[in-house]
Here is the input.
Amino acid sequence: MKSYEKSVYVAMAADLLHAGHINILKIARQKADKLKAKVVVGLLTDSAIAEVDEPAFLDYNQRKEVLENLKLIDEIIPQETFSYIYNLHIIKPILVIHGDDWQSGYLRHYRNEVIEVLHALYPQQHTGMDSHPNLLEIPYSHNINALGIKKALHSLGISTNARQSRLRKLLALTPPPHCRPIRILETHSAISALIAQNAYVESNGKRLEFDGFWSSSLTDSTSRGKPDIEAVELTSRLNTINEIFEVTSKPLIYDADTGGKIEHFVFSVRSLERTGVSAVIIEDKMGLKKNSLLGNDVEQTQEDIEVFCDKIRAGKNAQITQDFMIIARIESLILDKGQEDALKRAFAYINAGADGIMIHSRQKSPDEVLTFLKAFREKDSKTPVVVVPTSFNEITAKELGEAGANIIIYANHLLRSSFVAMQKVAQGILEFDRSKEMESSCMSVKEILSLIPGTI
Ligand code: SPV
Ligand code: MG
Here is the structure.
């Protein structure tokens, strides 16, 4: 290890190490030797990567082990956030090196921060706020880069285990009390899952995507023209999930309604695990299940606490993988049983082995869910909590995360929106007795043909 005071700083995730990384490290080495400085790599931690991108394939220690064997590097330190600010103030490098790809797009935010810190550290070298002599940007390797490698990997598909374990991985990266919410979107078919998989927005230095899918009993039933009363059997629903898994790589949470009879639930757990589902949610109701958003307008009965705990225990005993999760859904607020009942049940279910809880509400305001989260998090800072803000839709996922919720499920929106779109076009064709007027409401045939790889 060189004992030079000065350092050349390179931050990287180094998840899929490729020639582009080596090129940057070689340049860092040459510059450092000339400047009598050491090469310090700020290795992005798992949670730093998850701030802006999907989780790394390899964990921090695995990535560190690879870099430790490169002679080009003198020292590796963790970079705990995607922002360089903290490490730059500590290290005060004489040179920061990065690929020039961050000059545009959502990473530009971090580049601006680096330039600002360098201006603060070396004000005498002021050259305007869009660059700094102590920042060296290397032309991006267009023929080999992490995005291209990731795309190629995704096109190969994902193993059952890798997909299944992804939810726990995501949860580990974003612990309470202030969780980065895991955003889950309802999907009821392969095409809706492709839309959910590929949707993204880029802003404030972050790329935001849905983290996974919700197999909703409501939309799975409705898309088959059946009521949401546990009438669609597991085999049919697994067929849909298999179709979804064939074309996507994100994890899926399965809505198993009541979970059925204890004796049947243990088989469902095994089937879901085998398919690569990450978690099952079962609700504490009994008898003929009705959709929760109907509340007390229909006859719905909550299950006895001990009986439901037995179901959770049986499920946990049946499970063969470490990664699969059984999440207990509490219907106390739906059925006007109050906060105390909801909390009592939450702790009983966790004691019985539930890996997480879901608190549901049908109020227009998020208040009762926020009250629950506050009381629950005072006693339990670890157990994952799921919320489904269908009726209380003004609150953002970020706000729910700040209140202590880990997983936010948008439970029915793709089916509901497609229904409106399809109904409008069906009616319009009849009204005009031709399709011309409806063309602007449809995706073009050219686009639809190019949507799915392999069509043309
Ligand atoms: C579902 O999506 O099927 C659910 C959520 O269980 S809810 O419809 O709100 O009950
Ligand atoms: Mg349901």
In short: Residues 216-218, 255, 257 surround magnesium ion (ligand 2) (CB under 6 Å). The mean pLDDT is 91. The CA atoms of residues 190 and 244 lie 4 Å apart. The chain has 17 helices and 17 strands.
